[in-house]
Amino acid sequence: MKKLLLLIFFIPLITVAEPYIANLRSSDIASEQEAPRLGNEENKDLKRKRNYPMQPPTIPHKTQNYRVDLNSNKCLSCHSRRQVVDSQAPMVSVTHYMDRDGNFLAEVSPRRYFCNQCHVSQQSVKPLVENDFQDIDAILDNKAVKK
Amino acid sequence: MINKLKELWGTIRQPSRYFSLGVLTVAGFIAGIIFWGGFNTALEATNTETFCISCHEMNNNVYQELKSTIHYTNRSGVRATCPDCHVPHDWTDKIARKMQASKEVWGTIFRTIDTREKFLAKRKELASHEWDRLKANDSLECRNCHNFQYMDFTRQGKRAEQAHSAGLATGEKTCIDCHKGIAHELPNMAGVEGWQ
Question: Are A61 and B69 an interchain contact pair (Cβ–Cβ within 8 Å)?
């Protein structure tokens, strides 16, 4: 009986306390939003700055309809060790030819095969969320000013 | 049997006994129009996409793959159908290709690629045939629409411009050398020149 009373007491609390979840939707979860328009990928072929030394470089060209699967890898048809002679594209970094124990392989390591896991084309659009990232140079400059 | 053939040969050799020269000429002329027209109509009927995808091998595999590519759907709505790329436009070349294609009828009858698995297993061989064909005729079917003379390099991307002015302009390379797998999925490309 006591337990039942407790439960009845707590039920309204459970339903009222709606947890706030941060998301990119501006409407409630049940309504369907209009899909954002497709943008154009940048295709300038100019290298972009990396925000920190280990950042995977972003792709400075279009990669629409590039197939990367078991049979073929469109990216590697220019960026692999053998193909850069013809394409004059930058070769994928040497770390991509290493297995996780640091041994060098003849081909790109399977764990690095799917380029789009880390490298992506960019579109010039307004960022959806605010970002106050500072790169190491900015941090060092700030420190120098404070002193 | 031999005697009957000899008799027939004799009849054919003889001049016409009942029909005038005029009737024979006009009748021959009309029959010629009908036969030639019929032949051409039949030929053109086999040169349509509806004909190609009336076989499930084509409809379920290559046609479905084509649908997401730029040669099927794009902003301006111009599209290429199967024969635009796979059948030469010139008459003699077309007939030659059609005769080769009789092998495909054989394939349908004996179910060479009647399942997706069989098709995938044979894909490299089939794709190689098309690559070889386009390589041999200097990518003729591509050039039927994409005319090199009218390409504006300044409107191309930097990499495209470079590749086209270096390889294509000198005739060192042809379209298919670089543009493989643009309308269909690719087979396993291990060992194919220019891939990995």
Answer: no
